[in-house]
Amino acid sequence: MADLSAQHGPSAANSIFCSWMALGNILGYSSGSTNNWHKWFPFLRTRACCEACANLKGAFLVAVLFLAFCLVITVIFAKEIPYKAIAPLPTKANGQVEVEPTGPLAVFKGFKNLPPGMPSVLLVTGLTWLSWFPFILYDTDWMGREIYHGDPKGTPDEANAFQAGVRAGAFGLLLNSVVLGFSSFLIEPLCKRLGPRVVWVSSNFLVCLSMAAICIISWWATQDLHGYIQHAITASKEIKIVSLALFAFLGIPLAILYSVPFAVTAQLAAKRGGGQGLCTGVLNIAIVIPQVIIAVGAGPWDELFGKGNIPAFGMASAFALIGGIVGIFLLPKISRRQFRAVSGGGH
Predict the structure, then answer these.
(1) What is the pTM of this model?
(2) In the predicted model, what is the mean pLDDT of residues 213-226?
(3) In whole angstroms, how far apart are CA 18 and each of 74, 121, 328?
(4) If you write DSSP's letter for every residue of 102-140 in order, what string do you get?
(5) Domains in the chain, start-ordered, CATH in brackets?
(6) CA 114 vs CA 117, 197, 270: distances in Å
(7) pLDDT tens digits, residue range 298-340?
(8) How far is CA 62 from CA 33, 68, 78, in A?
Protein backbone atom coordinates (compact mmCIF):
# COMPACT_ATOMS: atom_id res chain seq x y z
CA MET A 1 0.00 0.00 0.00
CA ALA A 2 2.78 2.42 0.88
CA ASP A 3 4.54 1.69 -2.43
CA LEU A 4 1.37 2.33 -4.42
CA SER A 5 0.24 5.49 -2.60
CA ALA A 6 2.70 7.62 -4.61
CA GLN A 7 2.00 11.34 -4.44
CA HIS A 8 -1.09 10.86 -2.29
CA GLY A 9 1.10 9.91 0.67
CA PRO A 10 0.84 7.17 3.33
CA SER A 11 -1.67 9.05 5.49
CA ALA A 12 -4.25 9.37 2.73
CA ALA A 13 -3.61 5.75 1.78
CA ASN A 14 -4.11 4.62 5.38
CA SER A 15 -7.40 6.51 5.58
CA ILE A 16 -8.69 4.84 2.42
CA PHE A 17 -7.42 1.47 3.63
CA CYS A 18 -9.21 1.99 6.94
CA SER A 19 -12.50 2.87 5.23
CA TRP A 20 -12.43 -0.27 3.08
CA MET A 21 -11.58 -2.35 6.12
CA ALA A 22 -14.60 -0.82 7.84
CA LEU A 23 -16.77 -1.89 4.91
CA GLY A 24 -15.43 -5.42 5.22
CA ASN A 25 -16.13 -5.37 8.94
CA ILE A 26 -19.69 -4.24 8.30
CA LEU A 27 -20.28 -7.16 5.95
CA GLY A 28 -18.55 -9.61 8.28
CA TYR A 29 -20.35 -8.55 11.44
CA SER A 30 -23.65 -8.51 9.52
CA SER A 31 -23.09 -12.17 8.76
CA GLY A 32 -22.51 -12.81 12.46
CA SER A 33 -25.55 -10.86 13.63
CA THR A 34 -28.04 -12.87 11.57
CA ASN A 35 -29.41 -16.30 12.35
CA ASN A 36 -30.91 -17.02 8.94
CA TRP A 37 -28.08 -18.55 6.92
CA HIS A 38 -29.69 -21.98 7.18
CA LYS A 39 -32.81 -20.52 5.51
CA TRP A 40 -30.94 -18.79 2.69
CA PHE A 41 -28.74 -21.83 2.02
CA PRO A 42 -30.90 -24.80 3.05
CA PHE A 43 -28.50 -27.29 1.43
CA LEU A 44 -26.00 -26.55 4.22
CA ARG A 45 -28.23 -28.16 6.82
CA THR A 46 -27.87 -31.93 6.94
CA ARG A 47 -28.40 -34.75 9.40
CA ALA A 48 -24.86 -34.19 10.63
CA CYS A 49 -25.07 -30.37 10.67
CA CYS A 50 -27.71 -28.67 12.82
CA GLU A 51 -29.15 -25.16 12.41
CA ALA A 52 -26.29 -23.48 14.28
CA CYS A 53 -23.75 -25.46 12.26
CA ALA A 54 -25.43 -24.45 8.97
CA ASN A 55 -25.40 -20.78 10.01
CA LEU A 56 -21.68 -20.99 10.70
CA LYS A 57 -20.97 -22.74 7.40
CA GLY A 58 -23.03 -20.17 5.51
CA ALA A 59 -21.13 -17.24 6.99
CA PHE A 60 -17.77 -18.84 6.24
CA LEU A 61 -18.81 -19.80 2.71
CA VAL A 62 -19.67 -16.18 1.87
CA ALA A 63 -16.39 -15.07 3.49
CA VAL A 64 -14.42 -17.47 1.28
CA LEU A 65 -16.12 -16.14 -1.86
CA PHE A 66 -15.48 -12.51 -0.89
CA LEU A 67 -11.86 -13.28 -0.04
CA ALA A 68 -11.27 -14.99 -3.38
CA PHE A 69 -12.87 -12.08 -5.26
CA CYS A 70 -10.80 -9.45 -3.45
CA LEU A 71 -7.62 -11.45 -3.96
CA VAL A 72 -8.22 -11.60 -7.72
CA ILE A 73 -8.84 -7.84 -7.83
CA THR A 74 -5.59 -7.20 -5.94
CA VAL A 75 -3.53 -9.46 -8.19
CA ILE A 76 -4.92 -7.86 -11.35
CA PHE A 77 -4.78 -4.16 -10.45
CA ALA A 78 -1.96 -3.76 -7.88
CA LYS A 79 1.02 -3.47 -10.22
CA GLU A 80 4.23 -3.51 -8.20
CA ILE A 81 7.51 -2.01 -9.37
CA PRO A 82 10.83 -3.20 -7.92
CA TYR A 83 12.21 -0.79 -5.34
CA LYS A 84 15.53 -0.30 -7.16
CA ALA A 85 13.72 0.95 -10.24
CA ILE A 86 11.96 3.70 -8.31
CA ALA A 87 14.74 5.35 -6.33
CA PRO A 88 18.37 4.80 -5.34
CA LEU A 89 19.06 2.95 -2.13
CA PRO A 90 19.96 5.11 0.89
CA THR A 91 23.68 5.52 1.48
CA LYS A 92 25.83 5.77 4.56
CA ALA A 93 28.00 8.74 5.43
CA ASN A 94 31.08 7.25 3.69
CA GLY A 95 29.17 6.76 0.45
CA GLN A 96 28.59 3.01 0.75
CA VAL A 97 25.18 1.69 -0.19
CA GLU A 98 23.08 0.85 2.89
CA VAL A 99 21.48 -2.52 2.16
CA GLU A 100 18.49 -3.57 4.23
CA PRO A 101 18.79 -7.00 5.86
CA THR A 102 16.98 -9.84 4.09
CA GLY A 103 15.72 -13.28 5.01
CA PRO A 104 13.30 -14.59 7.66
CA LEU A 105 15.14 -12.81 10.50
CA ALA A 106 15.53 -9.52 8.64
CA VAL A 107 13.16 -7.67 10.94
CA PHE A 108 14.98 -8.75 14.09
CA LYS A 109 18.40 -7.98 12.57
CA GLY A 110 17.15 -4.56 11.52
CA PHE A 111 16.27 -3.35 15.02
CA LYS A 112 19.59 -1.54 15.20
CA ASN A 113 18.77 0.35 11.98
CA LEU A 114 15.46 1.82 13.14
CA PRO A 115 15.06 5.56 12.55
CA PRO A 116 15.08 7.95 15.54
CA GLY A 117 11.76 7.97 17.34
CA MET A 118 10.74 4.51 16.16
CA PRO A 119 11.44 2.75 19.51
CA SER A 120 9.00 5.15 21.21
CA VAL A 121 6.40 4.43 18.53
CA LEU A 122 6.82 0.69 19.19
CA LEU A 123 6.39 1.15 22.94
CA VAL A 124 3.21 3.23 22.64
CA THR A 125 1.87 0.87 19.96
CA GLY A 126 2.35 -2.11 22.28
CA LEU A 127 0.60 -0.36 25.18
CA THR A 128 -2.22 0.77 22.90
CA TRP A 129 -2.86 -2.75 21.62
CA LEU A 130 -2.69 -4.14 25.16
CA SER A 131 -5.67 -1.87 25.89
CA TRP A 132 -7.58 -3.01 22.80
CA PHE A 133 -7.18 -6.78 22.75
CA PRO A 134 -9.40 -7.49 25.80
CA PHE A 135 -12.24 -5.78 23.95
CA ILE A 136 -11.44 -7.55 20.68
CA LEU A 137 -11.37 -10.94 22.45
CA TYR A 138 -14.33 -10.54 24.81
CA ASP A 139 -16.71 -8.00 23.27
CA THR A 140 -19.45 -10.42 22.15
CA ASP A 141 -18.83 -12.71 25.12
CA TRP A 142 -19.32 -9.70 27.42
CA MET A 143 -22.64 -8.91 25.74
CA GLY A 144 -23.79 -12.52 26.02
CA ARG A 145 -22.78 -13.05 29.65
CA GLU A 146 -22.93 -9.72 31.41
CA ILE A 147 -25.56 -7.77 29.47
CA TYR A 148 -27.91 -10.57 28.35
CA HIS A 149 -27.05 -12.68 31.42
CA GLY A 150 -26.62 -15.85 29.41
CA ASP A 151 -24.42 -18.87 29.90
CA PRO A 152 -23.37 -21.10 26.98
CA LYS A 153 -23.12 -24.07 29.35
CA GLY A 154 -26.23 -23.28 31.40
CA THR A 155 -29.90 -24.10 30.97
CA PRO A 156 -31.52 -23.89 27.52
CA ASP A 157 -32.89 -20.42 28.39
CA GLU A 158 -29.47 -19.23 29.53
CA ALA A 159 -27.82 -20.66 26.41
CA ASN A 160 -30.38 -18.93 24.18
CA ALA A 161 -29.86 -15.67 26.06
CA PHE A 162 -26.11 -15.98 25.54
CA GLN A 163 -26.52 -16.57 21.79
CA ALA A 164 -28.86 -13.56 21.57
CA GLY A 165 -26.24 -11.47 23.35
CA VAL A 166 -23.51 -12.64 20.98
CA ARG A 167 -25.66 -11.66 17.98
CA ALA A 168 -26.35 -8.29 19.60
CA GLY A 169 -22.61 -7.90 20.12
CA ALA A 170 -22.03 -8.63 16.44
CA PHE A 171 -24.59 -5.94 15.61
CA GLY A 172 -22.73 -3.57 17.94
CA LEU A 173 -19.52 -4.32 16.07
CA LEU A 174 -21.35 -3.58 12.84
CA LEU A 175 -22.24 -0.13 14.24
CA ASN A 176 -18.63 0.19 15.35
CA SER A 177 -17.48 -0.45 11.78
CA VAL A 178 -19.88 2.13 10.35
CA VAL A 179 -18.49 4.78 12.69
CA LEU A 180 -14.96 3.58 11.92
CA GLY A 181 -15.59 3.99 8.20
CA PHE A 182 -16.82 7.57 8.50
CA SER A 183 -14.16 8.49 11.05
CA SER A 184 -11.34 7.24 8.83
CA PHE A 185 -11.89 10.19 6.48
CA LEU A 186 -11.43 12.63 9.37
CA ILE A 187 -8.10 11.26 10.60
CA GLU A 188 -5.87 13.03 8.08
CA PRO A 189 -7.51 16.48 8.54
CA LEU A 190 -7.27 16.05 12.31
CA CYS A 191 -3.60 15.13 12.11
CA LYS A 192 -2.90 18.13 9.89
CA ARG A 193 -4.67 20.43 12.32
CA LEU A 194 -3.61 18.98 15.68
CA GLY A 195 -0.63 16.81 14.82
CA PRO A 196 -0.55 12.99 14.80
CA ARG A 197 0.85 12.77 18.35
CA VAL A 198 -2.09 14.68 19.83
CA VAL A 199 -4.60 12.60 17.84
CA TRP A 200 -2.96 9.31 18.87
CA VAL A 201 -2.68 10.20 22.56
CA SER A 202 -6.27 11.50 22.63
CA SER A 203 -7.51 8.17 21.26
CA ASN A 204 -5.73 6.35 24.10
CA PHE A 205 -7.54 8.46 26.69
CA LEU A 206 -10.85 7.80 24.91
CA VAL A 207 -10.16 4.06 25.10
CA CYS A 208 -9.28 4.41 28.79
CA LEU A 209 -12.66 6.03 29.50
CA SER A 210 -14.51 3.53 27.31
CA MET A 211 -13.01 0.45 28.99
CA ALA A 212 -13.78 1.97 32.38
CA ALA A 213 -17.33 2.57 31.13
CA ILE A 214 -17.63 -1.13 30.27
CA CYS A 215 -16.79 -1.98 33.88
CA ILE A 216 -19.37 0.56 35.10
CA ILE A 217 -22.04 -0.84 32.75
CA SER A 218 -21.30 -4.34 34.06
CA TRP A 219 -21.77 -3.08 37.62
CA TRP A 220 -24.97 -1.30 36.55
CA ALA A 221 -26.31 -4.54 35.05
CA THR A 222 -25.70 -6.42 38.30
CA GLN A 223 -26.32 -3.81 41.00
CA ASP A 224 -29.55 -5.51 42.05
CA LEU A 225 -28.15 -9.02 41.67
CA HIS A 226 -25.65 -8.95 44.54
CA GLY A 227 -22.80 -9.07 42.01
CA TYR A 228 -23.68 -12.48 40.57
CA ILE A 229 -23.96 -11.89 36.84
CA GLN A 230 -25.29 -15.29 35.87
CA HIS A 231 -28.21 -15.11 38.36
CA ALA A 232 -30.06 -12.45 36.34
CA ILE A 233 -33.16 -13.42 34.40
CA THR A 234 -33.77 -10.33 32.30
CA ALA A 235 -31.59 -7.52 30.96
CA SER A 236 -32.50 -3.86 31.02
CA LYS A 237 -33.36 -2.30 27.67
CA GLU A 238 -31.53 0.88 28.69
CA ILE A 239 -28.36 -1.08 29.42
CA LYS A 240 -28.52 -2.77 26.03
CA ILE A 241 -28.86 0.60 24.28
CA VAL A 242 -25.96 2.11 26.21
CA SER A 243 -23.80 -0.93 25.45
CA LEU A 244 -24.49 -0.70 21.72
CA ALA A 245 -23.80 3.04 21.82
CA LEU A 246 -20.45 2.35 23.46
CA PHE A 247 -19.62 -0.22 20.77
CA ALA A 248 -20.35 2.40 18.12
CA PHE A 249 -18.37 5.13 19.89
CA LEU A 250 -15.26 2.93 19.99
CA GLY A 251 -15.18 3.12 16.20
CA ILE A 252 -13.59 6.59 16.52
CA PRO A 253 -10.43 5.59 18.42
CA LEU A 254 -10.30 2.35 16.42
CA ALA A 255 -10.06 4.37 13.19
CA ILE A 256 -7.11 6.23 14.73
CA LEU A 257 -5.48 2.97 15.80
CA TYR A 258 -5.74 1.51 12.30
CA SER A 259 -4.19 4.53 10.58
CA VAL A 260 -2.09 6.93 12.68
CA PRO A 261 0.61 4.52 13.98
CA PHE A 262 1.24 3.27 10.45
CA ALA A 263 1.27 6.80 9.03
CA VAL A 264 3.73 7.96 11.71
CA THR A 265 5.92 4.94 10.98
CA ALA A 266 5.88 5.74 7.25
CA GLN A 267 6.85 9.36 7.96
CA LEU A 268 9.75 8.38 10.20
CA ALA A 269 11.01 5.99 7.53
CA ALA A 270 10.61 8.66 4.84
CA LYS A 271 12.63 11.17 6.88
CA ARG A 272 15.39 8.55 7.17
CA GLY A 273 15.33 7.95 3.42
CA GLY A 274 14.10 4.36 3.32
CA GLY A 275 13.46 1.23 5.33
CA GLN A 276 9.68 1.46 5.43
CA GLY A 277 9.29 -2.29 5.02
CA LEU A 278 11.54 -2.89 8.01
CA CYS A 279 9.72 -0.34 10.17
CA THR A 280 6.32 -1.75 9.27
CA GLY A 281 7.49 -5.28 10.06
CA VAL A 282 8.77 -4.22 13.46
CA LEU A 283 5.53 -2.33 14.10
CA ASN A 284 3.61 -5.55 13.45
CA ILE A 285 5.75 -7.28 16.07
CA ALA A 286 4.68 -4.58 18.55
CA ILE A 287 1.08 -5.54 17.73
CA VAL A 288 1.48 -9.32 17.86
CA ILE A 289 3.30 -9.48 21.20
CA PRO A 290 0.44 -7.75 23.11
CA GLN A 291 -2.00 -10.08 21.39
CA VAL A 292 -0.11 -13.10 22.72
CA ILE A 293 0.13 -11.58 26.19
CA ILE A 294 -3.62 -10.91 26.41
CA ALA A 295 -4.59 -14.25 24.85
CA VAL A 296 -2.46 -16.15 27.37
CA GLY A 297 -2.94 -13.97 30.44
CA ALA A 298 -6.45 -12.54 30.30
CA GLY A 299 -8.17 -15.82 31.18
CA PRO A 300 -6.17 -16.51 34.35
CA TRP A 301 -6.46 -12.81 35.25
CA ASP A 302 -10.28 -12.97 35.05
CA GLU A 303 -10.35 -16.26 36.95
CA LEU A 304 -8.23 -14.74 39.70
CA PHE A 305 -10.97 -12.21 40.47
CA GLY A 306 -13.93 -14.44 39.57
CA LYS A 307 -15.94 -11.63 37.99
CA GLY A 308 -16.36 -12.61 34.36
CA ASN A 309 -14.65 -10.32 31.85
CA ILE A 310 -14.62 -7.21 34.05
CA PRO A 311 -10.99 -7.57 35.30
CA ALA A 312 -9.70 -7.77 31.72
CA PHE A 313 -11.51 -4.57 30.78
CA GLY A 314 -10.22 -2.87 33.93
CA MET A 315 -6.70 -3.89 32.94
CA ALA A 316 -7.34 -2.55 29.43
CA SER A 317 -8.36 0.82 30.84
CA ALA A 318 -5.12 0.98 32.83
CA PHE A 319 -2.99 0.11 29.79
CA ALA A 320 -4.75 2.78 27.72
CA LEU A 321 -4.06 5.38 30.40
CA ILE A 322 -0.39 4.38 30.62
CA GLY A 323 -0.10 4.43 26.83
CA GLY A 324 -1.56 7.93 26.66
CA ILE A 325 0.77 9.27 29.35
CA VAL A 326 3.82 7.61 27.77
CA GLY A 327 2.79 8.96 24.38
CA ILE A 328 2.69 12.53 25.64
CA PHE A 329 6.34 12.39 26.64
CA LEU A 330 7.92 9.90 24.24
CA LEU A 331 6.13 9.94 20.87
CA PRO A 332 8.16 11.83 18.25
CA LYS A 333 6.79 15.24 17.50
CA ILE A 334 5.92 15.45 13.82
CA SER A 335 4.96 18.98 12.88
CA ARG A 336 1.85 19.65 10.88
CA ARG A 337 4.02 21.04 8.09
CA GLN A 338 5.97 17.79 7.92
CA PHE A 339 2.72 15.83 7.96
CA ARG A 340 1.46 17.82 4.97
CA ALA A 341 4.76 17.42 3.18
CA VAL A 342 4.75 13.65 3.54
CA SER A 343 1.06 12.91 3.17
CA GLY A 344 -0.04 15.68 0.86
CA GLY A 345 0.46 15.96 -2.89
CA GLY A 346 -2.18 15.22 -5.52
CA HIS A 347 -4.70 14.17 -2.87
Answers:
(1) 0.77
(2) 79
(3) 16, 20, 25
(4) -STTHHHHGGGGPPTTHHHHHHHHHHHHHHHHHHHHHHH
(5) 17-91 (no CATH), 116-334 (1.20.1250.20)
(6) 8, 19, 12
(7) 778 767 766 578 888 999 999 999 999 999 999 998 766 655 4
(8) 14, 10, 24
